[in-house]
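dumping this here so i dont lose it
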């Protein structure tokens, strides 16, 4: 749809013209009567693919996955005000926790009906404020292009995140004369702060002189695909590099200095490094909840911390720091490497202790990986360790894995191997169940040439099975693996360990998910033993369309992650 200068068009047409000007290729959404003019304009937009969903929440997860995997804004459209808009809240809260640039658009009550207790009336301006970067309600038709443009500008500005635009019925149905939209580059130039030379020199000296240095790489490295800069710095220092939880793909699995994910939900080797390091370089990470539980149980109290973050309020927020650098993590890593290399051998004259620290770590890491495989046995019923070993044997090295919350997915974070950047997408700090399958559909549309595998528990998948229709109707070829332990595993573990096995609400009843998938028109596979997993997953990956693998897991293989939350009940 092209608009000539001075042409009078509807608010719906203006909104779609603005989306086209932003280069939007996909819109996820659910139709509603409040936005008929916008949907009618989408009908003529041959360059935008509309993906109709069954629930606004899962549509938001699709937009979230698309945004993270593409680096562009993901767009979700709730066609109905009121209940259609409220269904967006969970997905937007998830996107905010992940700093994902989702542009959410919802229909809104006609302006003349506001404050009259009208049908489906809710204060959408107030409703979305806590879960987004910013909320707008368009006051008039002629302002629609401006506010769509502003929504994209804010969503994509550092630090990225979701935004909400409410479009009242009368604004969409009204007409106005609008000018053709300019390309985004005409009004959006998001620069990032550069580190000072003094900070670089001080940080480089501290790192070069450390006996037990470690780099913690987070989303600032992963989301910018800055692994080359981070590993280059680790190589210049010959020091270990670990990743914050949920960002295990920030550093390629096979790099010899990669220790995997750290923290209370990471592996023992990477976690020990941070607990014992004398200098910690936090590179594009907040050192927040999932990494540390805000506790010196997970960070060496005596370590000198160099904190590099794009968000200034995150620097030194939870732990005292030696040096704070408000800057882009990739650029900072490159400048640190250059300074250390330029310093020559004399800059790193006494490296025996640091080299011994790294050598010992590498030996321990190799033993950890060997023990991980040795511990995985083919027992019946299937144990998580055996299941994860089977997954490692068949998941392609270029695969993208999406995760849900829950104990099995949390264990999978560091039990799987991520060989290239942007291979792992998780709920991160929001801890959302019901995210993975829907997010995987959005990821696949953003990265159609890469295999996408979505791991879920049976409870989480049961929340979102209706989107199997979306996958089938749009031929979105993801493989969903349901790790089926017939319970809400985290909560049942807490009831077992801290509440004397007084189980209530912990067990889940589900149909055979492989059969359910077939009823939706997808392909279904089943694995009741460890030995059956590789063949089932390989067959699912070979399907040219959506596939589901139902994997039976021992319901008694429970693990309490948040033991710290129940210390008052420990016996």
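and the seq i came up w/
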């Amino acid at each position: 749809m092209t608009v000539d200068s001075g042409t009078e068009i509807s608010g719906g047409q203006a909104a779609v013209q603005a989306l086209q000007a932003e280069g939007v290729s996909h819109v996820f959404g659910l139709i509603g009567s409040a936005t008929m003019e916008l949907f009618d304009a989408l009908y003529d937009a041959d360059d935008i693919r509309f993906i109709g969903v069954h629930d606004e929440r899962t549509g938001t997860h699709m937009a979230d996955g698309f945004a993270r995997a593409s680096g562009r804004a993901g767009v979700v459209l709730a066609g109905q005000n009121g209940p259609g808009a409220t269904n967006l809240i969970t997905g937007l809260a998830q996107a905010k926790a992940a700093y994902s640039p989702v542009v959410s658009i919802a229909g809104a009550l006609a302006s003349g009906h506001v404050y009259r207790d009208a049908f489906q009336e809710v204060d959408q301006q107030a409703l979305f404020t806590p879960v987004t970067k910013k909320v707008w309600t368009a006051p008039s038709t002629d302002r629609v292009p401006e506010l769509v443009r502003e929504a994209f500008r804010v969503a994509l500005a550092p630090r990225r995140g979701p935004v909400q635009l409410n479009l009242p019925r009368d604004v969409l149905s009204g007409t106005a004369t609008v000018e053709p939209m300019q390309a985004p580059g005409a009004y959006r130039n998001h620069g990032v702060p550069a580190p000072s030379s003094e900070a670089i020199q001080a940080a480089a000296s501290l790192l070069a002189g450390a006996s037990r240095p470690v780099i913690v790489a987070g989303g600032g490295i992963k989301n910018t695909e800055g692994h080359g800069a981070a590993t280059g710095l680790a190589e210049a220092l010959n020091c270990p590099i670990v990743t914050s939880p949920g960002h295990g793909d920030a550093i390629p699995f096979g790099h010899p200095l990669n220790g995997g994910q750290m923290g209370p939900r990471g592996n023992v080797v990477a976690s020990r490094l941070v607990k014992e390091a004398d200098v910690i370089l936090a590179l594009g990470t907040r050192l927040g909840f999932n990494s540390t539980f805000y506790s010196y149980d997970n960070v060496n109290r005596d370590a000198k911390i160099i904190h590099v973050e794009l968000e200034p309020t995150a620097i030194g927020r939870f732990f005292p720091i030696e040096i704070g650098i408000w800057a882009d993590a990739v650029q900072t890593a490159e400048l640190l490497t250059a300074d250390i290399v330029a310093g020559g051998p004399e800059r790193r004259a006494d490296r025996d202790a640091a080299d011994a620290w790294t050598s010992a770590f590498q030996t321990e890491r190799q033993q950890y990986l060997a023990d991980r495989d040795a511990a995985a046995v083919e027992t019946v019923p299937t144990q998580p360790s055996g299941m994860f070993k089977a997954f490692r044997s068949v998941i392609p090295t270029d695969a993208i894995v999406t995760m849900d919350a829950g104990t099995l997915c949390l264990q999978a974070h560091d039990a799987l191997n991520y060989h290239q950047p942007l291979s792992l997408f998780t709920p991160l700090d929001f801890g959302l169940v019901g995210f993975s399958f829907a997010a995987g559909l959005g990821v696949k549309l953003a990265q159609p040439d890469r295999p996408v595998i979505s791991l879920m528990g049976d409870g989480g998948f049961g929340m979102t099975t209706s989107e199997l229709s979306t996958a089938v109707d749009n031929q979105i070829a993801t493989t969903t693996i349901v790790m089926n332990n017939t319970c809400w595993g985290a909560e049942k573990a807490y009831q077992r360990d801290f509440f004397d096995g007084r189980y209530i609400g912990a067990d889940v009843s589900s149909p055979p998910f492989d059969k359910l998938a077939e009823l939706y028109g997808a392909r279904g596979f089943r694995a009741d033993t460890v030995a059956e997993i590789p063949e089932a997953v390989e067959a699912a990956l070979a399907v040219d369309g959506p596939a589901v693998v139902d994997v039976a897991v021992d319901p008694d293989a429970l693990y309490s992650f948040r033991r710290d939350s129940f210390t008052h009940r420990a016996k």
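The longest strand covers residues 102-108.
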